[in-house]
Specification:
By secondary structure, the protein is an alpha+beta fold. It is built from 10 helices and 14 strands. Helix 4 crosses helix 5 and helix 4 packs across helix 8.
């Protein structure tokens, strides 16, 4: 059985492309680009909370890095470097090799150097710290939304939560939607190109990790505003509706732009071949709140807002994004939330 250091050397050490000193010393050396600020984020994935024990290790390797890359996208930053710390209950070399392939597949996709980390024995969990670059003063923040701005979301939120529900036997998806939703759960696609393109266009942005309503709420709190969401033909309270609004684990971007930027967003959707959907507006208000409206303007009671690790399921109204959505049911392969203001290439 390989030692800790042999494991690192065998599976997690390779050449770098834009790093002064990578894996193998007491610390890495990086040289940020001239005129750029560093953007730094850390995420931990714990077995049983963020992923199922039987998750394919290569998919898990991809996701472990991808959820951190998504944070860079939400800041309008280019991901550059990452460290990986992991605890493993035992050394299964075939499992570790597959996990490493997933990590480096994601690293190659987004131009990231893995520059260090740590390994130890323990319950399976993974912690990535990622470093990105953004031109000084150009980072997207949560605090810039203003009354009159429009609220947009990328892609199709809710697919990951539906994929999880299928794997847990709480719903039954038919093909091809089954494969699509499971892929969204296990191989999320960080919207880095969108985040970079939103520099100078978006007033605020965040990625959807805990649920659309919960994460939009963070923008509202940071900006001191409220929101009115108008989602066409919103279905009755079902698993599909809860997945869209509070499922989490999507890693799409929710962002706000001035109303006059609508044409620019439409052009961006075409350029990136990515659906972008206008779902509401930012409102001034004495308190931070989200009003959910149907097509006729009637206020609809929202489902659970999203996940909080330190609330009980009863308090939060849900459980972990990877163990979530208590309502069961069957979702047909073509069932989806009709979209208001969708711009699709």
């Amino acid at each position: 059985m390989p030692s800790e250091f042999e494991l690192i050397a065998r599976y997690f050490t390779r050449g770098t492309t834009h790093t002064t000193l990578g894996v193998g010393d007491d610390g890495a050396l990086i040289a940020p680009s001239l005129g750029c600020e560093l953007v730094i984020s850390t995420d931990m994935l714990v077995e049983g909370t963020h992923f199922l024990p039987d998750t394919n290790p290569e998919d898990l390797g991809w996701k472990t890095l991808a959820v951190n890359v998504s944070d860079m996208a939400a800041m309008g930053a280019k991901p550059r470097w990452a460290t990986l710390a992991m605890a493993l209950p035992e050394v299964d070399e075939a499992w570790v090799a597959a996990f490493a392939r997933g990590v480096f597949a994601c690293a190659d996709e987004f131009g990231i150097d893995l520059i260090g980390g740590d390994t130890t024995r323990g319950p399976r969990n993974f912690c990535v710290t990622i470093f990105g670059e953004v031109a000084a003063g150009k980072a997207l923040r949560r605090s810039g939304a203003r009354a009159g701005d429009e609220i947009w979301v990328s892609g199709q939120p809710g697919r990951a939560a539906l994929g999880l529900a299928h794997l847990q036997g709480r719903t039954s998806l038919s093909e091809p939607r089954r494969s699509d939703c499971i892929a969204a759960l296990q191989r999320p696609q960080p919207r880095v190109a969108l985040g970079l393109a939103l520099q100078g266009l978006a007033t605020a942005a965040i990625d959807v990790s805990d649920g659309l309503l919960a994460d939009l709420g963070h923008i509202l709190e940071a900006s001191g505003v409220s929101a009115q969401l108008k989602i066409a033909a919103l279905p009755a309270p079902t698993l599909e509706r809860d997945a869209y609004l509070s499922g989490g684990d999507d890693y799409e971007l929710v962002f706000t732009v001035p109303a006059q930027a609508r044409t620019a967003v439409a052009e961006l959707a075409t350029e990136l071949a990515l659906p972008l959907t206008r779902i509401g507006s930012i409102m001034a208000g004495p308190t931070v709140s989200i009003e959910l409206h149907d097509l006729k303007g009637r206020i609809v009671e929202p489902p659970h807002r999203g996940y909080d690790h330190f609330m009980s399921p009863l308090e939060a109204g849900t459980v972990s994004p990877d163990m979530s959505l208590p309502e069961a049911g069957t979702v047909s392969p073509d069932m989806s939330l009709p979209e208001a203001g969708t711009v699709s290439p």
